[in-house]
Amino acid sequence: MDQESIFSEALKKNTLEERARFLAQACGDNTELRIEVEALLSAHDDAGSFLKKPPEELAATFNTDESLSKDDSDDAWRELLKPSDSADCIGTLGSYEIIELVGRGGMGVVLRARDAKLNRTVAIKLLAPELAANAMAVRRFLREARAAAAVSHDHVVTIYAIDEDSRPPLIAMEYVDGISLQQKIDQCGELDVKTILRIGMQTTAGLAAAHRQGLVHRDIKPSNILLENHIERVKLSDFGLARAVDDIGVTRTGQITGTPQYMSPEQAQAQRIDHRTDLFSLGCVLYAMCTGRAAFRADSAVAVMHRIVHEPAPPIRETNDDIPDWMCEIVDKLLEKNPDDRFQSAEEVEALLAGHLAHLQQPESVQQPERLKPSRSDRGTRLSRELSESLSAPISPQRRATNMLTTIGGLDVVVCLALFFGIAPGFRGREIPNVLAVSTVFGGLIGTVLLLSILINRRRSVNGALPRLIGILGGVLALLPCGPVHILAIPVSIWIIHVFWHRSEAGHSPDSASAQPAVLPTRSAAKWPAVYLALIAVGLLSPALEGDSGFITRNWLNLTGRGRITLNVRDAGVRVTLNGAEEAVTGSGTVNVAVVPGAYVIRSNNRGGLLTTNLHEIARGLRVIQRIDDIATGVAIIGPVSTEKLDQTARAELLREYSQPDAPPGVSPGAE
Amino acid sequence: MTDVTQILEQIEHGDPGASERLLPLVYDELRRLAAQRLAKEAPGQTLQATALVHDAFVRLVNVDRQQLWNSRGHFFAAAAEAMRRILVDRARRKRRVKRGGDLVRQDLNEAEIAAPEIKHDLLALDKALDQLAEEDRPKYELVKLRFFAGLTIEQAAEALGISTSTADRHWAYARAWLYRRIAGSESHQGD
Hints:
Strand order of the largest sheet of chain A: 1-2-3-4-6-5
Low-confidence stretches of chain A: 57-74, 244-258, 376-396, 427-431, 460-464, 504-526, 566-574, 578-601, 604-634, 640-645, 662-672
CATH topology of the largest domain in chain A: Transferase(Phosphotransferase), domain 1
Number of domains of chain A: 5
Strand content of chain B: under 5%
Structural class of chain B: mainly alpha
Oligomer: heterodimer
Helix content of chain B: over 70%
Mean pLDDT of chain B: 71
Number of helices of chain A: 24
Low-confidence stretches of chain B: 100-120, 187-191
CATH superfamily of the largest domain in chain A: Transferase(Phosphotransferase) domain 1
Distance between the termini of chain A: 95 Å
Mean pLDDT of chain A: 68
Largest interface: A-B, 39 and 51 residues
Number of helices of chain B: 8
Largest sheet of chain A: 6 strands, antiparallel
Number of domains of chain B: 2
């Protein structure tokens, strides 16, 4: 018995003696086992109420802890307040009369208060205890706050005072009566274009003001963009404060400070940051206004950051196709992974947004701003511009891939054409191996189809999936008639399509609104050359694999009037003469003959006994029956379809010639 | 239909990834409930962890949908796991504070902190549970359901798909096993 069963059985015994006896019997010589079981048994006896009572005692240590809930149960700050005389306050903090809690952020709490000295409403930001305990963090925080206080702008929350002597340090700033952009998006979902422009413009204006002061916000996100009630005037808040948190790295249980959804790639990778980081985050904010949700979403913070760094955001049009193209372009440019590809200043963006808004408000009198020049990443471009750009600018991976595809397709077509028409004449007089002929044609065909699909793709830049699909399917279809080996290409191609589709699907997370995959991300263009190469290789090589028994190979004659064929001669004693050159021998077997355009003659040595069937057999092998003459004499004239037609005279002459026994070899009627 | 109900349905239909999505939701709900309850209770009151779990179940799961019967086990497993984490986190944090750790917190209810032995018990139990989970996963699941989610033997047996008598046996063994581990390690506990 095993340990567990011995234990269970032993427990059933009523007295200790019975137990001891059972143990002795069950464990036998195995003292280790017995010791183990006895230890377990005694543990069982001693356990008492262990585990039997639910862990409620421990719950006594539950306190209101802000990590427990996001609700208003964090009262730690209340303890800091001194009692107040006023009826509407809950307490005082220094010279501020605290009225109520208005919000909770990663940094601490925000309170609405009245500045008793100046008798105005202010917002008080209290630094969270974990941060306040770290002296270095406090110093940095204060330094940043002072810098932010230097920004005076309509669209930036003004900082009135910084009290570093209080514990915890506090900041008194402009109280904005309203909701945050995040709340607005939560309430209303996607916003209309005018609102997006207005809010975006004002936000950018505030950003520009800060950038002029040399400040980088670092934490631009909808919850930091406040909208004053009624007029919805934007007030940017929390300037420069994000840095203090980063330095400490303190996190609440299970959370990363703040949301990484609006982080820029360089932030996510802890690289150097400049004002263009804010522009990326601005792009995320615009995106959120356009679609009602964040640009980069995933199940965990780490996954979000990965998407920010590596994957493009799902196109705005997927979620909201009311957003005009020019807006998507602006957002796309802001969301470029490489800061050098983005707009280089907030002023630029502000001017652009202002221009569009003005045009929208007065379409007749104000012209719409110019569309964005195509960025280097090859979206929506014309061929000529591509050419000049490719000469001057560094080549992006997508462009490289497209170039590669074009080169492969083009080379393939050129080579195959050259092979077929160029070298082919050199074969004149000799035979082109059927296989080679078929290979070149089909390789060329596939290359042409793929080239066409690339060209189509370039024009239809937005949705690249369809042209690529055409390319693949076209390539596959071109292979279809060729027989078993080529048929195999179909499932392979389907599998390839599926793999790449699936990979691009994974790039768009399950929260993508559309039911069907819309756009393969252009970065996967790098994989397509491999696919195309594979198809071309199949087109070129499979005739070789199939050999002469391939469907097309066999029918090559009919199509082109040239090639080699194999004749099966069933009957013994049939000699096949082709154009005077004797190929066959006695006995049954196969005859391999070369065929060139022109009439030819088959002659059997068994003149009297050349069975019709034999001739038919032979002719069938050629599949080019024009006429069978004079079977009785054992001579048949058969010509390929593409032959110059023999006229009656020539025909009669041929017949006459070959009807004679042992016709002289070397006579080749018909033209070559 | 709440998210949790949806996920439970997915589990019913055999969606393999659904169970993982359950835990964070349940975790959040439990924390929320706990905080809400505590905010209302007078200081010093204790809170039944298992009552929380059942509350959460009622709130999150639409019990009228009969087809969810089998997936209740999943819910309670997730809830028990969440409860365990919450409690252990709490115990750890309290211990740090007592040691004067650098996370100085405005901890107002120091007086309510229960006696140290119990806290040690929970952390030691947590460790022992990890060991049990490695050695004998089914018994671990049973202990988890009974202790953290407060299921009876019959309920736990049903949730795990074993007979009540088997559950009884497993429970006795697991208890002895765990107690032995903890009692053994207690002698090594310093502070």
